[in-house]
Structure prediction request, 321 residues.
Amino acid sequence: MYKLLQLLSDGRFHSGAELGASLGVTRAAVWKRLRLLEKSFPVPLERVSGKGYRLASPLSLLDEAGLSSVLRPLGWSLFLYEEADSTNAEALRLLQRLVTPSFVVVAESQTAGRGRRGRQWSSPPALNLYCSFVLQIEDGGRHLPGMSLVVGLAVVDALRKMGVSGVGLKWPNDVYVGGKKVAGILLELTGDPADQCHVVIGIGINVNMMDSGGEGIGQPWVSLRSVLGRCVDRNELLGCLALSLSGYIERHMAEGFAALRAEWESLNVWQGLVCRLSAGPQDVVGRMLGVDDHGALCLDVGGHVRAFSGGELSLRLEHDS
Prediction:
């Protein structure tokens, strides 16, 4: 089916005979594949007698050769899949098979994409960017604090290079445009976090998903296409992201998060607002002050400054703030 999608990705009309010849199948087989494509793919398929079939809008499919030529000079090897359960899960399996970092796992779609705290990440095929960057970290105790926030800075930088304005960050790992979520980050570790370890940096960006897509997303969201008013080249976006991430990670390793703290706070979308932090069985309500030199969240709770960090924390706005 992916080959059929490639043929239709230009948004132009293709006759059944033309598609059959390209695929090496009969017109009847083409018809069956088109029906299957309609059921599984969120972009409508149009039929016009005498012209053939086309997708309602063009697609940006991932180009393995082109991406490799961009990533290789930055030190990243590429693993590209038509489908994966999740790019983070596949990255962890590659590490188990002793694949040497640094490498990037990218998929056209995910069947079990996930965000923080086990949440589902909507992953329709050929529309968004689902990728995981894998690094080997020495002296993790010194380099891991604040890394999730640094990745957020890299995503913001990449989106700006693509022409997106008004990008902000929500602690610890969400990227917003116009008050709506456009991207999320999920870091997972293997090895000794205090010493040598591998870091899997999962990044999901809503790229060309239309307003009618994104079933199962439990919060306001936006896509780059709706912001920019055009189909966004996901290959260009991934190249920008790899370049930005390489630069920010290099600076983080050399200088620590403290050197990037002011930049992150300048992008904090909830600075000064009253927030509710879910920390296990209890909630904490306080005014957002920013973050400390290690990337921990700082809240003014009843006149006292408290710092919070950890992977199972969830931050929400209080309605009256």
Observations:
- The chain is about 30% helix and 25% strand.
- The first strand starts at residue 45 and ends at 48.
- The chain has a mean pLDDT of 90.
